[in-house]
Protein 1
Amino acid sequence: MAGLELDDVTKVYGDENAGVVAVEDVSVEVPDGDFLVLVGPSGCGKSTTLRMIAGLEAVTDGEVRLGDRTINEVSAQDRDIAMVFQSYALYPHKTVRANMAFGLEESTELSETEIDETVEETAALMGIDELLDRKPGELSGGQQQRVALGRAIVRDPDAFLMDEPLSNLDAKLRAEMRTELQHLQEQLGVTTVYVTHDQTEAMTMGDRIAVLNQGELQQVGTPLECYHEPNNLFVAGFIGEPSMNFFDGRLDGAWVATDAFDYPLGPATSDDLEDGSELVLGIRPEDIRVSDRRTGDRGFEAGVSVVEPMGNENIIHLRFDGATAVEEFIATTEGVPTVSGGDRVTVEFPEEAIHLFDAESGTAVKNRRLAFTGAVDGMLP
Ligand code: ADP
């Protein structure tokens, strides 16, 4: 087993000077035994990054290190890294046992008996020991994915790379497999990089997540750090469902003036900012307090357009006077909904919950602090 490190890794497809820059100067470290989730929208460079680690794609610039050696020039077969894909890529005519044994037969000197023992141990670990003599066509999607994982595990690699391995499964099975994979990864203690475009998967699975956009790394942190202390507008908007609400504004003395409201900042915040600067004020839906009473100078009147009762929470679509449909914002409340479409309400944005971003660069200039959320050491209370 070994840790993994990317040091200023860049990938340009095609001509080095005029090609597509798929990944740019990405540096990230995955300590030995850790689980890193690489997350970002489609086309942001996740698969390319993973394929460079696997040795399936050449690195244009920078270094990939596994343990204490640089592996840029090491061929994929010699990297001792196992990869699991969205498509299970099992051999259809071989049994589960033969599928799992194949890699070992090719890459190790183990005897047939030793291979058989290893396959059976791993199959038991994965709960597929009853299926060893079946062919992939006789298995469900979830079972096939388990075999694909088992085939990777049986090789006892230095690192696992997983490229959206659960996306072909239905929602319930996906949620189950997420938990199972996490347990398994902890139990095996193998350094793992897991790629997904799904922020929920990233939030629930990773020790740490690395958020990528347009080939550039935006933030590496625990899921809760990325959620509560986003580095920039992109991370703030990408992590969290429903998304953070954003309002364009400008600093006017100790106030953020937007089209819909003027928001007073405490001196500690406004003193650090340049008067007149263009800002984006952000607030998460669950931090907005919705009531029928005026609540001081951080409460503003708004109209309710739609309420979606989800059972555990209500998604309330709101609009300030004069705003268009695209300028709607969202608040979430728990329990039985107390407002409905057409109501006039007061929405309060508590100061400790707001985020401020520089409108031009997108950089966060004020975040709510993790401490305010009651979360300790990245764990929910
Ligand atoms: P993701 O996995 O995040 O969806 P990819 O790593 O597949 O993103 O792609 C990143 C960027 O690189 C995209 O703009 C994509 O079009 C481009 N790209 C990927 N593979 C190739 C290739 N073989 N040749 C040229 N461009 C590619």
Protein 2
Amino acid sequence: MENNYPNLKIIENPIVNQSLCTMRNKNTDTEGVRLAARKLTRILLYEATKNLPQKDIEIETPIAKFVTKTLNPDINIIISPILRAGLIFTDEAVDILPQATIRHIGMYRDEKTLKPVWYYNKVPMPVDIPGNYYVYITDPMLATGNSLLEAIRLYSQKGIPEKNICCVCMISSPQGIEAIFKEFPNITLIVAAVDLKLNEHGYIVPGMGDAGDRIYNTL
Ligand code: URA
């Protein structure tokens, strides 16, 4: 796809494509979907964390002293999985970023209106210096964009700069991408694929079906 959005990163490599192919295939069982999804989350999170600030520190190896870069320890990192499918990112996320706070967001999609319905919100929190917060909102499927927009608004309303907010998704739709950047042009959006369209039920075509059902075996 031609990418006209400066802050949209479409991550393409053979392992990403292999994972997507496995997840999309309707004949892949739950174990296979989960394994492929986990592998994909690792790669996407690696890309997502490229925006984190670093700091020079002096250390001593067994051979010599030297000044080297490391992740700035004076920042707050938040992982916000949108329940339920977004949870698939959390295991890898806490391995990579053990210092992160996990703030779950519970929303389901009303099947008629396709609008998100809240049932859990762990985001209320005091924010002292908003620029010190780095937020990763995770949801494998970016369909209409309604849930993701609700989640971004929560953090934006706290004053956290858009450039510190990164949404990490696997499969996206052109409509969802457009909706996100229309309201928040300066957030970063990481995806593995941009599919063709949404169907009349709001599912991504070709997509992978209901990601939550396929990951958690509730078909
Ligand atoms: N949510 C899903 O799980 N799949 C879709 O295709 C759209 C939204």
